[in-house]
């Protein structure tokens, strides 16, 4: 007859080995899961960086376009060509007008006016 303690020891050794095997499998699954998450996040980060670079390029292009359209010569050219606008007649300053006692400087429209264009 076998010793009952040896049977218990064998059973407990088998149980411990099975538990260690299950823990090892669970840890392996956990490692695979976290590697998958890391790869997914890495791909997302690369995609977001590429989107950021594209947006920075577009922003720089828009800044250049804004600087171009903010130039007074470009504004005047577009206003005259596309909208048919004409600049106002030149104003001249007249000092010491007797009709304006509160203002030492009076603004008067120049006598020359541009020729009217037919409609």
Automatic annotation (TrEMBL):
Cellular localisation: Cell membrane
Family matches, as InterPro entries: Cell_div_FtsL (IPR011922)
Keywords recorded for this protein, A-Z: Cell cycle, Cell division, Cell membrane, Membrane, Transmembrane, Transmembrane helix
Membrane topology: Single-pass type II membrane protein
GO biological process, one term: FtsZ-dependent cytokinesis
Record flagged with keyword Repressor: no
Main location, first listed in the record: membrane
GO annotations of cellular component type: cell division site; plasma membrane
Protein name: Cell division protein FtsL
Record lineage: Bacteria, Pseudomonadati, Pseudomonadota, Gammaproteobacteria, Lysobacterales
């Amino acid at each position: 007859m076998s010793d009952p303690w040896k049977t218990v020891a064998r059973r407990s050794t088998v149980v411990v080995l099975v538990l260690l095997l299950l823990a090892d499998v669970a840890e392996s699954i956990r490692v695979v899961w976290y590697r998958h998450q890391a790869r997914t996040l890495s791909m997302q980060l690369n995609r977001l960086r590429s989107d950021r670079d594209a947006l920075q390029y577009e922003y720089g292009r828009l800044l250049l376009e804004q600087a171009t359209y903010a130039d007074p010569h470009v504004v005047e050219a577009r206003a005259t060509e596309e909208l048919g606008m004409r600049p106002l007649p030149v104003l001249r300053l007249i000092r010491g007008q007797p009709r304006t006692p509160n203002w030492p400087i009076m603004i008067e429209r120049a006598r020359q006016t541009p020729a009217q264009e037919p409609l």
